[in-house]
## 1
Amino acid sequence: MQLLIVEDNVSDAELTVRQLRAAGIECTWTRVETEDAFRDALLSRPDLIISDCTLPGFDGVSAFAIAAAEAPEIPFVFVSGTLGDERAREALKHGAAGYVAKGNREDLAQTIRSALQRAPARHRRASDRSPLSAGDDPGTGAAQHLLARRRVLDETLQQRDPPAMTSIMLRKAPSPVALLVIEARLTRDRFAKLLPMANLEIDTAQDADEALERLAERVHAVLFTDSIDLIRRARQLPSGEATHIVFVSSGRLLQHADAIRAGANDCVPSDTRGEQFSTHVSTARRIADFAASLQVAVRDTDLLSTLDEVTSAARRHYFEQQFPREVERAARLGRPLAILMADIDHFKRINDQHGHLIGDQVLKEFCHRIGDGLRLGRDWIARFGGDEFAIVLPDTTASKACAVADRLCGSIRSEAFAAQFRDIAVTASFGVCALDHVCGSPGDVAQRMVRAADAALYESKLRGRDRVTADCIAETEERVSRA
């Protein structure tokens, strides 16, 4: 069996493979941790995909959306300590083959066997990869990824209509949590009283099994324990679930050496107090603060590199990465593809007359109206800069693309934009480029389609604005203007 593992921790991937082989499931495997590497590995058509949920700069939900679009016949199993029961049920409802918590890996082999039994045999895959109907296929997964990023943003800001996205960079890192697992009661009680003085939230567990469950449920920046066995077992968990481990010893040097070999970062005597105790806690606290801040920074950087801070549309950089993949998919599956270029008519005049804050509100409302006219999870929009946007329509012919553009153009002019107790009449111009059959290299075709759509947009401006113009990348095709 050929296995594709989406995992940023090599040890976790190796542990997964060892467990499968120990259960009699022979496999070869490839590990990836970035979106580009995942898309490349998906082309080899593995028999099964196993994915962690949270990776730096990428996540399992996005990987699942891409796999569902590009290779829906390949079973996808989540093995994660952070997905959670509710999101696991949601993933299963949308087609994931299984979900196994990292703290409950004994169920892994059975979940894999069940997923493989339900999947189509390899010799059937050529027919199974035929294009799905237009109502079922989410495309390359780009639109699904943007939806997932927006959900993360909404959860981060905890409101439905968040302010500018740059405000997430002003948040403080969450207070780090210390897990206390000390068998000696008097020592445990004394540490439980002292540690809150270092501004550490305290979580406790009675034994190693309970501690491992706690670590799988929640990231703990520091672990204080007098159990060398727990240290060893904790270090087999995914990276980051216990960032800094402090061994609380009875004072014997041999124990210190064993604890360090098992994976402890520091050792502190059980009877330590005063300045010595403060030094150990300060070190743990600095590392915990850094770990918590790093987690926030990674999440925020991922959001800000994907979504435009004003409109929540995709950034231009994301468009330049993803649109060639839409072209490649359309060429490979023999599907049509369309792109619309749009901008707001006389937007500079709106900024000059009403100010940039009102201009930003108009941009948000513009994207909202465009989004309401698109297929959720399939079509997607990117902000090129200023008031210019690209709208990607997978599996859309030229005639349908023009109809969509006409409808969007009418939606913009149909009702004045309400911005800060005033109504502003807004219109927009559109340029369309669509290919019913995509041929050529993805990068070259993508650039030519963008240029053609941009030229058509310029033609709409020249002809009076508030209209749609269609163009084609073939020079022999004539330009058609639509009022």
## 2
Amino acid sequence: MEFIDLKAIHRRSEEAIEAAMAGVLEHGRFINGPEVHELETALGEFLGGTHSILTSSGTMALEIALRALGIGPGDEVITTPFTWISTAEVIGLVGATPVFADIDAETYNIDPEAVRAAITPKTKAVIPVNLFGQMADYEAIEEIVANKPIHIVEDAAQSFGAERKGHKSGTTGTVSCTSFFPAKPLGCYGDGGAIFTRDKGLADRLRAIVNHGGLVRGDHDHLGTNGRCDTLQAAILLAKLPAYKEEIGLRQELGRRYSELLGDCCRTPAIAAGNTHIYAQYTIRPNDRGQLAKDLRDQGIPTAVYYRNCLHQQKVFQPLGYREGSFPHSEAAAREVLSLPFHPYMSHEQQDRICKAVRESKHA
């Protein structure tokens, strides 16, 4: 059994993907080919009319977003310590200082009141992470930063396709960023990402920074980088996008079914009021993670841990001065959560087998 069956996802759109790749090989425009612009348009339409800028990865999307907002040395950016390192490393890469705020114990997303407590005169942005597939409490965060020179940068790497109170992930804050890493809900066949904004001027600046600082070849108006998405990856995503709308529904149905089958034996994902959940990972909180993982492994069922160590516990961020116990909800989640196999084409028989094994374990 695969933890994420990427081959099954590929088979759903195989003919369209192969035709799209063949088209790129035929025209030979491997950088900034027509598929890049077609996908940007399609993603913008998917989100209801935002500007969309493709990037070479989700990490690059976050870094370019911060650079475009003018965030750098002397600035502070608040984010969660319970996430993949990209969210915080990009803060350091632009010269700013990461400031961590604890999570909500139920949703695992950043706690707005912890954000409030972390704000200082140096705070220039907040990066909430939509962890595991549902959006953070953006209304509360927006209220906290209202009338302050603080940007909200939505980290939507795990939530593309999710919604909160009718607003789609990718349309919140000053700017939003997502990832198309292969294991993400909508994944390409390498690295890829995107930035979204409704601000035309900011979109132009983002697009320039992605492409060595210029919108016109040979003219460099900003200090830019090479953050472009390859045409082949854009073509693959363009071919997969029509099926993705169906896959969102399949994800939600399978997530609901997991929770129905496991809800009386372990702690299943809590969905915040007004949210939809696309289950980038289906994550439970058993009594004994290590033993449950071993019990499942013995039956040929893989599991994964997102994330085993909080960011403030990582060696690279030790100079920030945080200690064990600084973020108790994040640290408890890092010790306890376990993700089960999940993908949109998982059969009910596979899901039943997994749930039976979880329920029969003494450690769920």
## 3
Amino acid sequence: MALDEKLVAEVDAYVDRVWPDVLDDIRELVSHPGVADYDQVGEGNPYGEGAHESLRCALGIAERLGLAPTDCDGHIGFADLPGASQDYLATIAHVDVVPAGTGWSQDPFTMTVRDGYLMGRGVLDDKGPAVLSLYAAHFFAERGERLPYTLRAILGSDEEMGMRDAKWYLAHYPEPLFLFTPDAEFPVCSGEKGHYSAFFTSPVMHDGAVVTFDAGTATNAIPGFAQVTVRADAARLPEAEGIDVEGLEGGLVRLTAHGKGGHASLPAGTRNAIGMLVSYLRDSGVLTAQERPFFDLLARIHGSTDGSTLGIADADEAFGAPTCVGGVIKTEGGRISQSIDTRFTTALTIPEIERRLGALASEYGATFEPGSGAVPYLTNPSSAPVQALIDTYNEVTGRDAKPFTIGGGTYARNFAHAVSFGPEDPQLVNPAWVGTMHGPDEGVSEALLRQSLKLYILGIDRLMHLSYAW
């Protein structure tokens, strides 16, 4: 059934009218850093005060927009628009962010608008879309029409660290009939690769060349900046593209790599700064015989982004090729530890990944520290709710898009019947100065967000008129 032209015109007028307020609310939410910190937990702050502060801000916006907010003691929040049935449809977005990191050209927590782009940490992932989800619900609240189902806008604050908020929610509240999260790409993502993270750790290395090697802000982010301090003669070290060599006192040298960061699930177009330094150190001749085996292992970790150099590149039809990147490296107690983040397909299992990587670590005299992960998930792309969202997207944009799968991990994987729905547009080419999610100068097209709000309202309207019998 085609979209109602009268409804489309009503939605267009609504978006025009509320847009200045939308920008103000995104700006306010971005100003609260909202980085989850498990070391700063307390009563009512299960993920730290910063994450809860962002959640309180978002719930305040929801209340002002006429929704009924609930703060679940900081674990998660939601805002309801009661419908004719207590059964509910939901959106879920998150108001926590990864740490700002380095390389920004502006204050990451002050949202700015530049040449049609919103800039600031979280404008794309996921504070901007979280505000859109609230304004989508507000559209129906303003109309005063009682929807067939209750509409719930869920707001999480632990998505980036481990999604403990979603697990808490499902332990305390019933599943929604259907849910979408505005935290990926359009048109509709109906499946996600499995994800797994772990660490490789070197043996204790006495009197090595490497003094400190600490880089990366999150295991699920590709670092665009990294530094290592080594014992060496700066005058004897070669020049290399993207690497600064700085002599220090006491026979030390600081090496700084400038790469291009991004999300671990989207390595195309990035340049891992840790990998740059690993290659430089192996080629420079400064490493000791004791250090070289572990750096040879690091070279394999950073030698590909599909896991092929680690022997875990098994692909499948639904998801294609996996990804595997190193995100955080650290020195402690004479050891060096390197994280990996892999997004794997149905062709692999977590036990098999651990078996292969454990054997690889042993080959280089290193230790493999198993981590955590989740299996792939897939929602039937032919189901009525998925088709309702696809039809809405195609009718608004004039495209002929199909559901797809991704390597990123969104809230959708935690729910029985869920997808992700925008807001990124894979066909949109951003200016070079616009950064990616998880990277410096994170930005998003204002026009894209405006269109996304329209799509969310029209999509919710269609979902409200379906029957759900899974």
